[in-house]
Design goal:
CATH topology: Rossmann fold
Number of strands: 13
Oligomer: single chain
Largest sheet: 9 strands, mixed
Number of helices: 8
Order of helices and strands: EHEHEHHEHEEEEEEEEEHHH
CATH architecture: 3-Layer(aba) Sandwich
CATH class: Alpha Beta
Length: about 270
């Protein structure tokens, strides 16, 4: 019997964009096919049936340290057991950092966040943010460090490689320290870095799959414009909306391909 729940983490650390993510995923699903359920750390810790009907667990963007604070130990063990038994994990931005072997966020600065991570679904270091994509600016949570970056998809995602714009705000590249490990595939790279930098990856974890993305394919030009409307210097950042709007259909197609790799059956 198909599993029909999509569990989305909404506890401390999850950003305000999580509602946008849940809406964007729902828009790609056949009517009545899945239930998108918001979950918190206590659900993972105490609900023994939580993963019984789970088709996908989504860890959204936000902040990695609060994830560690609430999920290290038994909750992470439950998430990993679910995936190893055939479940699926989609980690976006902070959710991607969180699922790597280690994190190197702003290494060498006063605000650095570095170290190993317990969930360790992908054998890579998550390195960010990437100032080469944001005119030399390190992520600071403001629209001034957001960008509409170019991604280049690989044949592991679709037969024909394309370049598409996506919203970026503090995300990582995946550093394997050598060849890509067996069972892991690079689905897309950043097109505007000096060296090949994986932006989206997928890895086998036992019988399951983890898909990690350093960018926010789910955020449209309209979503970002709505966020900017409440910002005091929104006019300075409208260019990003224009860039995101130039290839919105291609970006949505890539988002759909990523969701498929994460185990979902989508609408026509």
């Amino acid at each position: 019997m198909p599993k029909n729940q999509i569990l989305t983490y909404v506890d401390a650390g999850a950003s305000d964009w999580t509602a946008v993510l849940m809406r964007a995923v729902a828009h790609q699903l056949p009517t009545g096919s899945y239930e998108i359920r918001a979950v918190v750390a206590d659900d993972i810790r105490f609900d023994s049936t939580l993963f019984d009907d789970a088709a996908l667990f989504i860890m959204p963007g936000g902040a990695d340290l609060p994830y560690c604070a609430l999920l290290n130990g038994a909750p992470n063990a439950r998430i990993r057991t679910y995936i190893e038994a055939g479940g699926n994990y989609l980690g976006i931005c902070a959710g991607a950092y969180y699922a790597c072997r280690e994190i190197a966020f702003h290494a060498g600065t006063r605000g650095a966040i570095c170290g190993s991570r317990e969930l360790r679904l992908v054998n890579a270091a998550a390195v960010g943010s990437l100032p080469e994509l944001t005119s030399g600016k390190l992520y600071d949570g403001t629209p001034g460090t957001a960008a509409a970056v170019r991604l280049r998809t690989t044949e592991a995602l679709s037969p024909e490689s394309i370049v598409v714009r996506s919203h970026y705000h503090g995300g990582c590249r995946f550093d394997f320290g050598g060849p890509v490990p067996a069972g892991t595939e690079v689905l897309a790279t950043y097109a505007d870095t000096n060296e090949v930098a994986p932006a989206i990856v997928a890895a086998r974890v036992g019988l399951g799959t983890a898909v990690l993305t350093g960018v926010h394919l789910e955020i449209s030009a309209e979503d970002f414009a709505e966020m900017l409307a409440a910002h005091p210097d929104s006019a300075r950042h409208q260019e990003i909306c224009g860039l995101l709007a130039t290839d919105c259909n291609q970006r949505q197609n890539v988002f759909r391909q990523v969701l498929r790799r994460a185990g979902l059956v989508l609408n026509a």
